[in-house]
């Protein structure tokens, strides 16, 4: 039976409102940012077309370039922790045979997700406080010599930011991977039992290959989240001490709302946008090849 | 049972009678109140129309008091809703100024912290803020009646000298703010630690340096707990050098900005070391200062001397003091980690209440001492160090076209700047544990004796002028600030010398100045009027 043109059109009609909103709130903003990046748009002044000037300035901005180094460390750590720890937790949960206990543990992993991110950050900020938190624990253990002003020390600030959220399980990524594990068909396990596979064999040969699409999603999401967000850094060190923890998105924000240079900030934003797209494509391509 | 019912009905009847009598009294009071409202009911706006005015403030400072003032004001003028919009911190406040003024100014807040507004929008230039029409000139309002002060003029509650400070601070020809309070900066010190360690209060800069070393030798890692506010100490040192050439930076007869009525003290001025207040009525020329900066840069011999002297004390500050969290540095002092704290009067109330809340065995006696003068000043600097005692809460009115609305905003502003309004703001602020910034400059406002005594310790002999523009401290773009902070940190821990620091600061300073010149449209010839970049 052939579909009528009306039936063919119907799904597109349902999608239209979403696309209209996307066009207004996302694509227009992106387009406008790209246009603004070629102007000298600044607070309180009329904008003029300046060509590639803002891009040249961004590539000559030593701090903007340096901030990518910090970003690289933060992003590599974020992607690793977003995959490894939730995967580990999901696997451990999988092998708990007692359903009730498994459910309790699962709930315990999920409940912290309900706490707003800023509260988590503030708790960690307290833990890093030089007079309380970790330093108090070190003092109790008579290890005062190891105490630091964690977020205010050039040597420890970046690492302290990376470690915020430890043990990195209470996140959406855990739920994604856990769901992925539950989607694996029983017949594979039955075959594994027949073949006399160990638990490690199950993880290596059944779980990991079947979880690849889910891991890809987690990698992509964590990559984008890590590159585009700056709330964590802004709320903890604001890029300091000096520029030890400055990242491109934070620098862009400061140029836009600190100096009011919207043209320059837009160019930085476009560069960051391109970097995110390239890295996302690269990561997906790499994982595809591994498949 | 019947008897009980009778008793209950008697009690009820009695309570109704009492309530009636009390409400009668209330009505009488209301009548009294409405009389005072009636006195101010001859208002300059259409009272049959509803409107909303927005006061945007930074969290904690006077917040509770301002909310109370808004509540009380709305009782007098129910047709005007006053919204107190509280912003969490300085950075967020500046961002808010940028975003709200990049849209329709008519929709922006009505009363704002003027110093933050100019900092965010015009590189701290009040003249540019007036030129761009961001803020209202409050000079004409001074001669208007304040209906909340028995019909006296608005100016009647201020000392002329404080009005002069407000005028000079905002460019010399227009007044962007009215004085509300004064703030000072001083060294807080823990008397108990000083007594325990047998260390005397320093009387000279050299003694201060010596006791810092003694404290460090005794195991106090950071003898002076300090944050960004410590730049005022740097400013005080800079003052000992720059004030000798102060005339270079003043508006002069023949300048386009010259106004005989407000700037006559500028003429033939030369700093008199025997009269430390001799320059209090002077008006700076932004353009002359800019011309000097452009010609000399920041890496001058004088700045090297200033920073070298500052570094002698800054090396006893905490690491990365320039980006330190204020609460953190105060806590370090309160916990006895640092025997001294370099802070402003605006945190004296907090320190006082925090210490009172500590367990008795952890409480300690504290007081303040002023910036100590040099015993033997480095070459190029004068010996006597002046402190800082300037206007604190700088509230400006945003310029709007809607006349009816503006009249309401002005009326609420007058309410806050009346003796009873200001007293209410102070009292409510203190009751709620928010911070007052310093003693009030509005005649008739009084403070609790203990707090007043602490605040008196912030009043210096003379007040230094603002020299950050010339010593380059924080005079870089926001984007370059992290690099600047890094330089200051390296300098403070003696990784680089003052000269090396200033050499690396030079390009950042130049970039900032070039942008400021462009924005203000300066041709660097003070004799010609300039137009800000459109």
From TrEMBL, chain A:
Q: Where is the ABC transmembrane type-1 domain?
A: 68-283
- Entry's PROSITE patterns? ABC_TM1
Which Pfam families would you find in this protein's record? BPD_transp_1
Asked if the record carries the keyword Nucleotide-binding, the reply is no
Q: Which UniProt keywords apply?
A: Cell membrane, Membrane, Transmembrane, Transmembrane helix, Transport
Bilayer-crossing regions: 12-30, 72-96, 108-128, 157-176, 214-235, 262-282
The family classification in the record reads: Belongs to the binding-protein-dependent transport system permease family.
Q: What is this protein called?
A: Sugar ABC transporter permease
Please name the source species: Faecalicatena faecalis
Taxonomic path = Bacteria, Bacillati, Bacillota, Clostridia, Lachnospirales
Automatic annotation (TrEMBL), chain B:
Keyword presence, Ion transport: no
What name is this protein filed under?
Extracellular solute-binding protein
Signal as a keyword? Answer: yes
Pfam annotation, one family: SBP_bac_1
Write out the similarity annotation: Belongs to the bacterial solute-binding protein 1 family.
- Protein's organism: Faecalicatena faecalis
Q: Which UniProt keywords are given for this protein, alphabetically ordered?
A: Signal, Transport
N-terminal signal peptide: 1-24
Q: Superkingdom of the source?
A: Bacteria
């Amino acid at each position: 039976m052939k579909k009528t043109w009306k039936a063919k059109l119907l799904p597109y009609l349902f999608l239209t409102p979403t696309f209209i909103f996307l066009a207004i709130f996302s694509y227009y903003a992106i387009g406008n940012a790209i246009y603004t990046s070629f102007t000298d748009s600044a607070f309180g002044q009329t904008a003029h077309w300046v060509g590639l000037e803002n891009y040249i300035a961004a590539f000559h901005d030593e701090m903007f370039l340096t901030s990518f180094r910090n970003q690289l460390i933060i992003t590599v750590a974020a992607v690793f922790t977003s995959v490894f720890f939730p995967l580990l937790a999901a696997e451990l949960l999988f092998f708990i045979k007692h359903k009730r206990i498994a459910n309790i543990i699962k709930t315990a992993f999920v409940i912290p997700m309900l706490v707003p991110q800023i509260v988590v950050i503030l708790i960690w900020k307290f833990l890093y406080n030089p007079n309380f938190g970790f330093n108090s624990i070190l003092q109790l253990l008579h290890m005062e010599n190891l105490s630091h002003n964690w977020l205010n020390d050039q040597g420890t600030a970046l690492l302290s930011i990376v470690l915020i959220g430890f043990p990195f399980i209470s996140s959406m990524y855990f739920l994604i991977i856990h769901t992925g594990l539950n989607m694996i068909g029983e017949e594979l396990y039955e075959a594994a039992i027949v073949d006399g596979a160990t638990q490690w064999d199950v993880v290596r040969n059944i779980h990991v290959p079947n979880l690849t699409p889910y891991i890809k999603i987690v990698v992509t999401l964590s990559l984008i989240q890590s590159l585009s967000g700056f709330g964590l850094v802004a709320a903890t060190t604001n890029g300091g001490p000096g520029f030890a923890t400055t990242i491109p998105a934070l620098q862009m924000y400061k140029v836009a709302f600190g100096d009011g240079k919207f043209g320059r900030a837009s160019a930085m934003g476009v560069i960051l946008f391109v970097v995110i797209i390239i890295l996302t494509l690269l990561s997906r391509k790499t994982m595809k090849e591994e498949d | 049972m019947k008897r009980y019912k009778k008793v209950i009905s008697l009690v009820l009847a009695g309570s109704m009678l009492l309530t009636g009598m009390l409400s009668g009294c209330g009505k009488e009071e209301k009548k009294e109140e409405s009389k005072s409202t009636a006195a101010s009911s001859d208002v300059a706006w259409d009272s049959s129309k509803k409107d909303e005015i927005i006061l945007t403030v930074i969290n904690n400072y006077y917040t509770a008091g301002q909310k109370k003032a808004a509540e009380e004001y709305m009782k007098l003028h129910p047709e005007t809703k006053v919204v107190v919009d509280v912003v969490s911190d300085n950075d967020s406040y500046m961002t808010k100024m940028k975003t709200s003024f990049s849209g329709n100014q008519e929709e922006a807040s009505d009363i704002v912290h003027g110093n933050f507004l100019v900092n965010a929008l015009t590189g701290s230039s009040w003249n540019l803020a007036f030129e761009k029409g961001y803020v209202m000139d409050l000079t004409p309002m001074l001669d208007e009646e304040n209906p909340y002060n028995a019909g006296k003029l608005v100016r009647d509650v201020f000392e002329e000298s404080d009005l002069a400070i407000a005028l000079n601070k905002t460019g010399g020809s227009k007044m962007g703010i009215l004085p509300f309070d004064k703030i000072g900066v001083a060294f807080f010190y823990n008397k108990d630690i000083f007594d325990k360690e047998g260390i005397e209060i320093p009387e000279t800069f050299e003694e201060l340096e010596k006791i810092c070393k003694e404290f460090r030798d005794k195991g106090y890692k950071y003898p002076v707990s300090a944050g960004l506010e410590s730049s005022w100490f740097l400013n005080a040192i800079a003052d000992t050098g720059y004030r000798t050439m102060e005339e270079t930076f003043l508006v002069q007869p023949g300048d386009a900005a010259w106004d005989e009525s407000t700037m006559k003290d500028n003429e033939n001025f030369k700093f008199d070391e025997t009269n430390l207040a001799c320059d209090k009525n002077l008006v700076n020329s932004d353009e002359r200062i800019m011309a000097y900066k452009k010609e000399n840069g920041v890496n001058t011999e004088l700045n090297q001397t200033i920073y070298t002297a500052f570094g002698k004390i800054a090396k006893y500050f905490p690491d990365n003091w320039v980006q330190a969290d204020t609460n953190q540095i105060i806590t370090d002092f309160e916990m006895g980690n640092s025997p001294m704290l370099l802070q402003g009067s605006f945190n004296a109330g907090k320190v006082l209440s925090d210490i009172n809340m500590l367990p008795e065995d952890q409480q300690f006696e504290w007081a303040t001492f002023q910036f100590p003068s040099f015993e033997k000043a480095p070459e190029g600097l004068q010996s006597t160090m002046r402190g800082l005692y300037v206007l604190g809460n700088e509230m400006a009115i945003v310029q709007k076209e809607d006349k009816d609305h503006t009249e309401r905003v002005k009326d609420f502003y007058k309410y806050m700047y009346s003796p009873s309004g200001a007293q209410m703001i102070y009292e409510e602020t203190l009751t709620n544990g928010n911070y007052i910034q310093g003693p009030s400059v509005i005649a008739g406002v009084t403070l609790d004796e203990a707090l007043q005594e602490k605040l008196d310790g912030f009043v210096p002999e003379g007040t230094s002028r603002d020299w950050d523009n010339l010593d380059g401290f924080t005079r870089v773009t926001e984007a370059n600030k992290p690099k600047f902070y890094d330089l200051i940190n390296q300098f403070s821990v003696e990784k680089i010398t003052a000269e090396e620091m200033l050499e690396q600061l030079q390009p950042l300073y130049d970039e900032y100045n070039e942008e400021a010149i462009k924005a203000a449209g300066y041709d660097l010839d003070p004799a010609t009027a300039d137009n800000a970049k459109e």
